[in-house]
Amino acid sequence: MNHRARWGILGCARIARLQVVPAILRCREAELAAVASRDAGKLEEFRSLFGDFKAHAGYDTLIDDPNLDAVYVPLPNSLHREWAIRAMRAGKHVLCEKPLALDAAEAEEMIRISRECGVLLMEAFMYRYTARMGKVEEILASGLLGPIRCINSTFRFFLDRQNTIKEQPELGGGALYDVGCYPLNLIGLITQSEPEAIAVECAKSNGVDVNLSAVLRYADGLIATLHCGFNAFGRNYSEIVGTDGALLIPDTFLDDAGQLTLLTKQGSESIAVAASDRYGEEIRDFSTAVLEGRQPRLGLEESLRNLRVLERILEKIRD
Predict the structure, then answer these.
(1) Which of 73, 121, 144, 159 is the most buried (most CB within 10 A)?
(2) Structural element, H or E, at residue 87
(3) Rg (CA), the chain
């Protein structure tokens, strides 16, 4: 058995260059084996940054490479389904950037094919691998907050780069797909269910949502709010409120060191969280899952459930 999972990267996307490929290089269980791009200049840039790997001039030749175990898909959202399926049918395990697909039907097809082909498929929510989220899950499991009644979660940033895929509707652009899926994932992690009712307000630019808020009401009376956007100062914050306490989570989806605040009848408690390597831990988990023949941390039923909710939100804002 290989001691390292051999990775191929489909394209030279910014997130691959800045985050995922460096994470692969940091991971003892992973090896950067191949990168595909139609742009020879980008392949040379990657080689200058990351050293030796097999360069492929097309995505097809990479997924057919017999010397690869896993493929990372950082392509535009509209291409996730097509290339994840092609890679899985070629026998490769797939780590696919979020959102896994554009809608639940695409995700269902991807999940079915992963099972038919006997390969792993996971949505790349790297924030789930932080010490911050570990502490959040620990507090939720402890019952200190009591039954949860309210969740508020925001992820927005000011988009100051021009002509990005984030602004192109035909490529699956928009704030909900790009960053709103993080609060939605957090809400799904907590509720483990789908809302009974959804209300949405949205502002659009260039055909995509750039400022969106959604209110989700659940059968047990819990109400969750989700906010995301591209057009104003950045905010990355969540709060979880129960009958017995509240948990305040600054920088929810980041991996730097920080503080959580736990509020109960006994008063306020600051809880330190250490800096983490969210991308490195995600790559380590998926790589060892490939090597050990086990499932990775994030399950596909969770991804499918959250995509059903995301699809319902999008239906509210389509012209």
Answers:
(1) 73
(2) helix 80-89
(3) 20
Q: DSSP secondary structure string, 166-214? A: GG-GGGT-SHIIIIIHHHHHHHHHHH-S--SEEEEEEEEETTEEEEEEE
Q: What does residue 61 show for φ and ψ, rounded to 5 degrees?
A: -70, -30
CATH superfamily of 131-275: Dihydrodipicolinate Reductase; domain 2 (3.30.360.10)
Q: Point out the catalytic residue in the list 98, 135, 265, 316.
A: 98
319 pLDDT tier (thresholds 50, 70, 90):
low
Give the count of beta carbons closer than 10 Å to the beta carbon of residue 116. 10
98 is catalytic: yes
Condensed to tens digits (0 to 9), the pLDDT of residues 62-74 reads: 999 999 999 999 9
| Residues forming CATH 3.30.360.10 domain(s) in the chain | 131-275
∠ at Cα 249 (243, 253), nearest 5°? 130
Full-model pTM? 0.96
Q: According to the model, what pLDDT value does residue 162 have?
A: 81
